[in-house]
């Protein structure tokens, strides 16, 4: 996902639908897919490249085979593959329905990465060698994107960094995005406010690669085209001139790439590791019938200067030399420390 996935907005449906349980399965299927196609045809980033008459006709024909509504959702993958919607997702109950996506062979990534990812890592902050601040920013997926919800998630993360900077004498920072495979970037960016400072940190382009909005952080507040979307209560000195090494991996995607883009163009910053996954498009949350939510791709993501990158390519390439058991033996960390130590 990308702001999953990136930056999301809740859009409301004006249409009031009958409760799903009062419908026969084929009625539910027709209602759902009618709304799905309507949303895609109006808002999907690459909508003008799709033959919607063919896509819709073929999908509706295939849907006749399904005896239950839930089984019919397997058709979403086929549809998304057909229209190239590789960053769109459908969420229903505990399940996600998406396009096939890019496959990364197991031999291309380390056992250390796999073990760490399988452990379901959470946000971490620690000191290395009593001199370097290490932040692990993992994926974060949730659906309540109200300002109150974002604040509730972001503030404790920010507080950990703020308290850490006060209680430690840090010479430079290491931001690890290798576990950030997608989610909502808003609380991540707010948590990292001290490192990013009062700056433009990104933006969005439409299908014609024209700028549609700019994202800024100002005094702990997150602004999208001048509208405040969320905030944290900031405290202490800023770290926007401190040295930062950003580490990425093959699975750094969507929100992970949004975070990396936010540091593009920042002074005293270096990128280390592997090129990112390549989900640098922006999604919005779009409600569909029957309590279903779609992450709908509508824009291209940019850095603070309006530049779009299909993938973020590191300044220093490091591959399959991860060590999450002992970070000081991790080649990415070693390169980051070299950068920070270089006066």
Summarize the structure.
The chain has 10 helices and 16 strands. The protein is of the alpha/beta class and about 350 residues long.
Overview of the structural elements:
- The chain has 343 residues and is α/β, with parallel strands linked by helices.
- The chain has 2 domains: 5-98, no CATH class; 106-280 and 299-341, 2-enoyl-CoA Hydratase, Chain A, domain 1 (Alpha-Beta Complex), CATH 3.90.226.
- Helix content is 30%, strand content 24%.
- The chain has 10 helices and 16 strands.
- The strands form 3 sheets. Strands 2, 3, 8, 9, 10, 11, 14 and 15 form an 8-stranded antiparallel sheet that branches. Strands 4-5-6-12-13-16 form a 6-stranded mixed sheet, with helices on both faces. A two-stranded parallel sheet has the order 1-7.
- Strand 9 (211-218) and strand 10 (221-224) form a beta hairpin.
- Helix 6 (147-167) packs parallel to helix 7.
- It starts with a strand and ends with a helix.
- Residues 1-20 have low confidence and may be disordered.
- InterPro entries: ClpP/crotonase-like_dom_sf, Tail-specific_protease.
